[in-house]
Amino acid sequence: GEDVEQSLFLSVREGDSSVINCTYTDSSSTYLYWYKQEPGAGLQLLTYIFSNMDMKQDQRLTVLLNKKDKHLSLRIADTQTGDSAIYFCAEILIYNQGGKLIFGQGTELSVKP
Amino acid sequence: GAVVSQHPSWVICKSGTSVKIECRSLDFQATTMFWYRQFPKQSLMLMATSNEGSKATYEQGVEKDKFLINHASLTLSTLTVTSAHPEDSSFYICSARVSGVVTGELFFGEGSRLTVL
C-alpha cells in the first residue's frame, strides 16, 4: 500500500540540530523527497535522495536513508527561526504512465529563539 | 529553478458557482501536472494527474465531474470546481514535472485558497 508516516510536531531551540523522521512503505520507491511549506504557500523542494544512497549532505541539510527499515530522516544543522515551517517527506510511486508523489502528514517544526 | 504559477491565489465564491484555477509552467514544458488538495494542518492529497492532450487520471474517491481538469497545452492545466459547496473550501496546489523526466523534481505552484460561502 501507499503510506508515508511522520511525527506531527518538533520543537527545537535556535542553533540546535533538528531531526525529522519519516517511514514509508513502498520498497520500490526510487526517489525520496523532503519538501518545506511555509504558511499559506506552496511546497519548496529541499532535497531528495536516490534509493541506492545511504546519505546525502547539502549545506545544513543531511538526509539519511535506511532502506531495510524504510526509514528516512532529515537533519537540519544550526536550526534558525527561518526554518520554522512544515516539512513533508514524500515517496514516488512509479506506474506505467509515470510517477506520482505520496506525501506524509507533515512535521511542523517550531524553532524557539 | 523552474517556476510554476497558479492563479488566482485566493478566491471567494458563492455556493453553486463554478471556479477555475490555472496552473502554468512558466519556463519549461510539462507533459504532466498534478493537482493536490490540502486541508488545514494536513498533508497534500493527490486529486488527479493531468496529462497534456488526454484525459486526466483521477484518484479514488475524487469526483471527476465535480473537479474538471483540462491540460490543453504543455504549459497550462486548469482545475474547475463545478457547483462549489462550502465543503469544497480548501487549499489547492498544482505541481508540474519537466517533460521527459519521469522521476525528476516536481515544481509546485504557490497554491490557490478557495472559500465557498
Which structural traits does this protein have?
heterodimer, A: 113 residues, mainly beta, six-stranded mixed β-sheet, five-stranded antiparallel β-sheet, B: 117 residues, seven-stranded mixed β-sheet, four-stranded antiparallel β-sheet
**What general form of chain A does the structure show?**
globular
Mean pLDDT, all residues of chain A: 89
**Fraction in helix of chain B:** under 10%
> Main β-sheet of chain B, in a few words?
7 strands, mixed
Rg of chain B is: 13 Å
Oligomer: heterodimer
Number of strands of chain B: 11
The profile of the biggest β sheet of chain A is: 6 strands, mixed
H and E string of chain A: EEEEEEEEEEE
H/E element order of chain B: EEEEEEEEEEE
Number of helices of chain B: 0
Spatial gap, N to C terminus of chain B: 37 Å
Strand content of chain A: over 45%
Structural classification of chain A: mainly beta
| Strand tally of chain A | 11
Radius of gyration of chain A, CA atoms, in whole angstroms? 14 Å
Shape field of chain B? globular
Mean pLDDT of chain B: 89
Q: Which range best describes the helical content of chain A: under 10%, 10-25%, 25-40%, 40-55%, 55-70% or over 70%? A: under 10%
